[in-house]
Amino acid sequence: MKKEEIGAFFKFRREFIKLKQEDLAVMSGITSRTIHNIESGEGNPSISTLEKLAEVLGLELVVKVKDVN
Questions:
Q1: Nearest to 53 by CA among 23, 18, 2
Q2: Phi and psi of 45, rounded to 5°?
Q3: For residues 48 and 20, what is the distance between their CA atoms, to the nearest angstrom?
């Protein structure tokens, strides 16, 4: 997935469970500004940041490594 797709998915999930960005920020320990940047596709979040957000949103973050052979 591209970062824009990840951001859109996280935003969809947040809105689905009726959380404001500010609420997600408090619950995850991630700033509202960072959440805004991720959701708008402008941010370049670390895996750690995505894991924290996913935990609050009830999501599981799975990272797959492509075989280059």
A1: 23
A2: -70, 150
A3: 21
Domain layout of the chain by residue ranges: 3-57
pTM: 0.87
4, amino acid identity: E
What is the fold, at CATH topology level, of the domain defined by 3-57?
Answer: 434 Repressor (Amino-terminal Domain) (1.10.260)
pLDDT digits (tens, 9 = 90+) for 4-55: 999 999 999 999 999 999 999 999 999 999 999 999 999 899 999 999 999 9
Q: Which amino acid is at 52?
A: K
SS3 content of the chain, % helix, strand, coil (to 5): 60, 0, 40
CA atoms within 13 A on the CB side of 20: 3
